[in-house]
Specification:
554 residues, alpha/beta, 14% strand, globular
Length: 554
């Protein structure tokens, strides 16, 4: 037999085996699907049903890349996602041709000044520099991989001037001084893998003047891989500072407070995407995470809906006082606001007693999470803009606004959103998912499954290999530096020499009919609503105030 005939025979045999295998598989599937009882469509139409489930499975990816427009996707549109990636990878945030915003829809706008500030008039720290790596895009062909060049980049860190530094707990033994208005919101080790935590820790240190929040999962060794400032969050489960019985271990809290990087503590009462305690699936709870959190390994963790150590505002403030006395460092609370009266009792108590938190983190319902329930993520808790207006107005009404700093979080990933939040009353802003995207997140929406394909929201050692710390740390740094630079740029357009001076007069709201309202007028309406609910709750107090008699909140 000649060689060519042999190859023909082998090819025919292989082809026949492949066809037979495919036919055998189809016959097996048809037989199996017609007998199974779970899926109705497979019993009647096995092959079409299988195709249906396949298309359903790849639907999110098809919509993300093919069918959704650049501004349609959720939680982040393609335009939003690409903006973050450009900032973190290329240290560029310019666009061409024009805005893709729908200007017919209602929304907030920064009020520009006829005579904006010149660059040299901006009150910025001109001394502090940041050394990062960024990519230069050389070519971006259609069918082959883009050609990029990695280069070192030295630029201003775009920090606040010393005179404008934000100080939390100025009268404490260890006040928290910040020269950057933007930090990393709460993301626990366990929700994120160690590669992501280390990359973020090192990147934020490179950027300088910022901080990272540990999330309620406790302080891990990976948060301490750099010298970045840390806000340690304590949730209802007391992870990281609990004893074997699940009670507060005050000795452990004291030891954590003596770590130089730990600058403040945050008591988590609620989170925008889950107005309840945190959740982490069992497969993520490896022995290391269990040790950090002081819980059994490979068991799902659900922290309680609230702290059992306190049950009302006075007992909560006593708990805050004890943490502050133990640590000597600022103590704040993280809350979700549900209505106009949500923080009245707290503000009133602060005014009457002098007690209370050093800062309040207000998280909007549009915020993200590693794992939650649909009904909580969609419908419980107000968005961050509404929440900020209520919180700032209530604290001001009771005369305690200057005592407490407000940190806003909830999809505030761009400089215009940050500027508007500052004008609404925020002193500082925290970002979570923006930083996740900066280190590689591609929005597969699998954070709860431990199957994150890019190694960000997973503790799987194999999957984490995708995230190269030494490369991604620079992207995290570039993202926050670019945001700070843009925030000064938008401040200049508003006629301000620093973003710390944003106020309600710098923002307008346009409705869907084209009519513009000042933010000041909107705040006035919020104050009237608060007055109305106050009159129902504290009638004698409000009556005295309206008669001109000084009350505890004037």
């Amino acid at each position: 037999m000649i060689v060519s005939d042999l190859f023909i025979l082998i090819g025919f045999s292989v082809g026949a085996l492949v066809i037979a295998a495919i036919l055998g598989m189809f016959i097996y599937l048809i037989t199996f699907d017609r007998k199974q009882k779970m899926h109705s469509i497979l019993r009647n139409y096995p092959l079409l049903g299988r195709m249906r489930y396949f298309l359903e499975k790849i639907g999110p990816e098809m919509r993300q890349y093919w069918f959704n427009s650049d501004t349609e996707g959720r939680p982040f549109s393609r335009a939003d996602y690409e903006h973050i990636v450009r900032s973190s990878k290329y240290k560029r945030d310019v666009v061409g041709f024009g805005s893709r915003r729908d200007f017919e829809k209602e929304g907030y706008y920064v009020r520009n000044d006829m005579f904006p500030k010149l660059t040299e008039e901006l009150k910025v720290d001109k001394e502090t520099m940041a050394l990062t790596n960024r990519y230069l895009l050389i070519k971006d062909p259609l069918f082959t991989q883009r050609v990029e060049k990695l280069e070192e980049d030295v630029s201003s860190a775009h920090l606040l001037h010393d005179d404008d530094a934000v100080v939390i707990g100025p009268d404490l033994a260890h006040p928290f001084v910040l020269k950057g208005l933007i930090g990393m919101s709460a993301m626990s080790y366990g929700s994120l893998g160690k590669h992501a935590i280390i990359a973020l820790s090192k990147g934020l240190e490179i950027a300088k003047g910022t901080w990272m929040n540990t999330g309620e999962g406790g302080l891990s060794p990976y948060h301490l891989e750099s010298n970045v400032d840390i806000i340690m969050q304590i949730g209802p489960g007391l992870f990281g500072v609990r004893d074997p019985k699940g009670e507060m271990d005050w000795g452990e809290l004291k030891r954590k407070s003596e770590i130089p990087q730990v600058k403040a503590f945050e008591i988590k009462l609620g989170q925008g995407a889950k107005v309840r305690g945190g959740h982490i699936d069992a497969e993520k709870v490896n022995p290391e995470i269990a040790e950090i959190r002081k819980v059994p390994p490979y068991q799902s963790i659900d922290s309680p809906n609230r702290f059992h150590q306190f049950h009302d505002v006075p007992s909560m403030c006593d708990f805050i006082e004890k943490i502050r006395e133990t640590t000597g460092k600022p103590v704040g609370i993280k809350i979700v606001i549900g209505g106009n009266s949500s923080v009245q009792e707290l503000a009133k108590y602060m005014s009457e007693t002098g007690k209370g938190p050093d800062f309040i983190t207000v998280d909007g319902g549009e915020g993200g999470t590693g794992a939650s329930y649909q009904e909580l993520a969609d419908s419980v808790g107000l968005p961050v803009k509404s929440s900020l207006l209520i919180l700032a107005a209530t604290l001001k009404k009771y005369g305690v606004r200057d005592r407490v700093k407000i940190i806003a979080s909830g999809k505030l990933f761009s400089p215009d959103r940050i500027a508007i939040a500052l004008a609404m009353g925020a002193d500082l802003v925290q970002i979570a998912r923006g930083f996740m995207i900066s280190v590689g997140c591609i929005q597969t929406l699998k954070c709860h499954s431990n199957e994150c394909p890019v190694g960000v929201a997973t503790t799987d050692p194999q999957l984490q290999k995708a995230l190269v710390i030494e490369e991604k740390k620079h992207r995290a740094a570039n993202y926050v530096i670019t945001l700070r630079k843009a925030l000064f740029r938008i401040s200049a357009a508003a006629g301000l020499d620093s973003p710390v001076h944003f106020s309600p007069k710098n923002v307008m709201y346009k409705d869907d009919k084209g009519i513009a309202y000042s933010l000041e007028s909107i705040i006035h309406e919020v104050e009237k609503q608060i007055d109305g609910e106050e009159a129902e709750k504290y009638p004698a107090l409000v009556k005295r105030a309206r008669m001109g008699t000084p009350g505890p909140f004037y």
